[in-house]
Every structure is written in C-alpha cells, then in structure tokens.
Amino acid sequence: MDVVDDWRIHLSASSRERILGKILETLKRVAPHRPEEFHAVESIARRFEGNVYNSATSQ
Q1: Cα(10)–Cα(5) distance, rounded to whole angstroms?
Q2: Which pLDDT tens digit goes with each residue over 45-56?
Q3: Which one of 4, 36, 41, 51 has the largest count of C-beta atoms within 10 Å of its C-beta?
Q4: Stretch 28-42: mean pLDDT, rounded?
Q5: Which residues are CB-neighbours of 8 under 8 A, at least 6 positions away?
Q6: Mutual orientation of helices 38-57 and 13-30 as an angle, nearest 10°?
Q7: From CA 25, how far away is CA 33, in angstroms rounded?
C-alpha cells in the first residue's frame, strides 16, 4: 500500500472525536442506561475507539 494514499495518517483528532460521538450515540440507543452511568459508557466508547484506531494504524 502506498503511504501517500493511506487514510490512517490523515485522520485528525477532530475526526476521531466525531467518530467517538457516533459510537456514543449508538451505545445510548441500543444500551439504555441511567444518566449517572454516562461516564462509564463514555469510557467504554473511548477505549473501543482507541482500540479500533490502534489496530487500524498498526497494520
């Protein structure tokens, strides 16, 4: 794969935050929770996004 065409090196922090927001929206929709549990749900979403990003950038 040509490094110039690699989308992973062009993914900005704002793009990752947008992706995280979409993950959170999905989790809220499919896994109902109490408002006081939001921090735990957000933590799970951040770890998941980080794992996906790390996996994608290490290939």
Answers
A1: 9
A2: 999 999 998 988
A3: 41
A4: 84
A5: 56, 57
A6: 130
A7: 12
Backbone phi, then psi, for 16, in 5-degree steps?
-65, -35
**Which residue's entry shows tokens 């408002």?**
35
Token pair belonging to 17: 């935050």
pLDDT band per the 50, 70, 90 thresholds, residue 10: confident
What is the Cα–Cα distance from 13 to 16, expressed in whole angstroms? 5
DSSP state for residue 49 in the 8-state scheme: H
**Integer Cα distance of 40 and 2 in angstroms:** 39
